Amino acid sequence: MKKYYLSCLFLFLILCPCLSFAQVDDESQAYDGGQSEIVDSQDVNDVSADDPSGKDVSHSAAIPDDFTGTFAEDDPDSEVYQEHQIFGEDEAEDEEEEGEAVDEGPTHLLKLEFESQVVVSDALAATPFLEISYTLKLEQEIEVVNRRFRTKAEAQVTTDVVGTIAGNELFTCKLEVQLNQVEADIMARYTLVEETEETEAISQLAVQIKFARDGLMEDWFSNCLGTDGSILNTKGDREKYLLTTLDSVTPDLKGIVFESYDITTEVSQDIAAEPLLIEDADTHEEFMLQGSGSIEVTPIE
pTM to 2 decimals? Predict the structure, then answer.
């Protein structure tokens, strides 16, 4: 039985001219811990904006441009339909439930490792006044057979904050970001079809990673210290920087497909989140999100 190693590394960069906490009055001594919330990418209207870097910046849309008007299972815009196109219809499971023997083919073990990094910084300042790094790591052994294989895993999230969220000559506010342990559903399928006179040979590996969305929501705390020793700690609304960036990745993590897959060699897939502008509903400031990375599958001897 061969073993395989799947490694994923994402590096995301989010540039934002204004963070979600409200602006601080220079005359006040304590920060009030504002209540603004980043807008989900599917709730943002298409507005025109220029990217100072000169890159082509896309804006989010509520539904796909080629939406056909229904989310029925047989509709191409349906997530269920798209999943069936990649992972098959699970006919083997149906036969197994009826008590028939199922030929699944050989079983291959993969070590699935996912790592992502998200950085939030000020887009306008010459040097970021605040930088937040999120590191998301997941490692799980999975079986890959000629049917859908499902398992659950837990990802660990760590954060590192450099700089201050607000302050003046009277006080300084440090930011603390917390995330819960993130659960993930993993699915994989290895499809191997021999070439015949009627069909072409197929060797394909498909992998899906679905993170629990609530676990990716961020709790933000502003811990302020005045020059006179006074302390004021506040909590803002939950934020979505990590979640929104992962949602914008292409290819989608719901279906990473390795075509012409050779189980004896290493394969990789580049992944990118194109520049995306998101407007904050309260401050009307725009946040720019972008990222890149790769997934690799390596055999384990």
Answer: 0.67
